[in-house]
TrEMBL record:
<comment type="similarity">
    <text>Belongs to the carbon-nitrogen hydrolase superfamily. NIT1/NIT2 family.</text>
</comment>
<keyword id="KW-0378">Hydrolase</keyword>
<dbReference type="Pfam" id="PF00795">
    <property type="entry name" value="CN_hydrolase"/>
</dbReference>
<dbReference type="InterPro" id="IPR036526">
    <property type="entry name" value="C-N_Hydrolase_sf"/>
</dbReference>
<protein>
    <submittedName>
        <fullName>Carbon-nitrogen family hydrolase</fullName>
    </submittedName>
</protein>
<dbReference type="GO" id="GO:0016787">
    <property type="term" value="F:hydrolase activity"/>
</dbReference>
<dbReference type="InterPro" id="IPR003010">
    <property type="entry name" value="C-N_Hydrolase"/>
</dbReference>
<dbReference type="InterPro" id="IPR001110">
    <property type="entry name" value="UPF0012_CS"/>
</dbReference>
<feature type="domain" description="CN hydrolase">
    <location>
        <begin position="1"/>
        <end position="247"/>
    </location>
</feature>
Length: 273
C-alpha cells in the first residue's frame, strides 16, 4: 500500500478558497498512491480560533465536495484531514446556531464518503477549540483493501486509551491528521512512535507547515511501522511524504511479539491501606 501524506503550508495570506483549490490539485496529482492523508483544519489553521465560526461548513459543504471530486479523479482513498463542521441546529434555531465540531472526512476512490470522525479530545483546556467546538462521541474505523484505518486527530495522540479502543475495533493503521505546534515537536515524534509500538500498528501522522494565527507549526509529518521504526519523516516546509507500506507487517509483528494478548482488563481499583 502506497501512502502519501501532504504536509500543507497554511499561509495566513492565502484565502480559504485559494488553499482549497490548491490542495485539491495536490490530491489529484497523487494518482499513484492508494491512500492520501491531509492535515487537521488545513482550511483555516488549527490555531485560528477566530476563523472557526466564520469558515465553518456543513458536513457536505465546499470542502466535502472538492475532496470527494479529488478522490474520485485520482482514484485514491482520501483522508481529507478535518474541517470546522457546523452541525445542523436544533429545531427552531437558526442554521448558524448549530454546534461546531472538528470533523475528519474519509472518501473512497469513487468519491463516496466512507467515514466522518468528530475529534474527541479538544485542545485548549479552558479556551480555544476546547470551548468553541463540541466533543465527538464515537470511535471510527474504516476498512480498506488490506488494512483497517483507525481515525484520531492531533490532541487525541496524547490519550492512549482511544487508540486501544481503535485496535480493539480492528484498526491496523492509525491515521492522525494534526496542526501540531513547533514548540512541542519532540512530543509529536515521541507519541507517534509510542502509539505505534504499544498498539503494534502503523501510524500515519500528517501535520502542517507554516504559521497558524501566530503559532509556528511543527511540520515533521511521520510514518511509523508496528515495531516503532520511523519509515519516513518530513521537514518543516510544505512537503509530500510518500512511503510504501506492507499491511502484513502488522499481523507479523503481533504474532512474533504477542504483547496485546497479555493485556489484563477489568482490574479491581486499588484499595486504600
Amino acid at each position: 500500500m502506497r501512502a502519501s501524506l501532504i504536509q500543507i503550508d497554511v499561509n495566513e495570506g492565502e484565502s480559504v478558497e485559494s488553499r482549497r483549490q490548491r490542495v485539491t490539485a495536490l490530491v489529484r496529482e497523487q494518482a499513484e498512491a492508494d491512500l492520501v492523508v491531509l492535515p487537521e483544519l488545513w482550511t483555516t489553521g488549527a490555531f485560528a480560533y477566530e476563523e472557526f465560526a466564520a469558515e465553518a461548513e456543513p458536513l457536505e459543504g465546499p470542502t466535502y465536495e472538492a475532496m470527494a471530486k479529488a478522490a474520485s479523479d485520482a482514484g485514491v482513498w482520501l483522508h481529507a484531514g478535518s474541517i470546522p463542521e457546523r452541525a445542523p441546529a436544533d429545531s427552531g434555531s437558526a442554521a448558524e446556531d448549530g454546534p461546531l465540531y472538528n470533523t475528519s472526512l474519509v472518501f473512497s476512490p469513487s468519491g463516496e464518503l466512507a467515514a466522518a470522525y468528530r475529534k474527541i479530545h479538544r485542545f485548549g483546556f479552558d479556551k480555544g477549540e476546547a470551548v468553541l467546538m463540541g466533543a465527538g462521541q464515537e470511535l471510527v474505523t474504516v476498512r480498506l483493501p488490506g488494512t483497517t484505518l483507525g481515525l484520531a486527530t492531533c490532541y487525541d495522540l496524547r490519550f492512549p486509551e482511544l487508540f486501544r479502543g481503535l485496535v480493539d475495533a480492528g484498526a491496523e493503521t492509525l491515521v492522525v491528521p494534526a496542526g501540531w505546534p513547533e514548540r512541542r515537536r519532540a512530543h509529536w515524534t515521541l507519541l507517534a512512535q509510542a502509539r505505534a509500538v504499544e498498539n503494534q500498528a502503523f501510524v500515519l501522522a500528517c501535520g502542517t507547515a507554516g504559521t497558524h494565527a501566530g503559532v509556528p507549526q511543527a511540520g515533521h509529518s511521520i510514518v511509523v511501522d508496528p515495531w516503532g521504526e520511523v519509515l519516513a519523516e518530513a521537514g518543516t516546509g510544505e512537503e509530500i511524504l510518500t512511503v510504501d507500506l506492507d499491511p502484513a507487517r502488522v499481523a507479523t509483528t503481533r504474532e512474533q511479539f504477542p504483547a496485546l494478548k497479555d493485556r489484563l482488563l477489568g482490574l479491581a481499583p486499588p484499595r486504600h491501606r
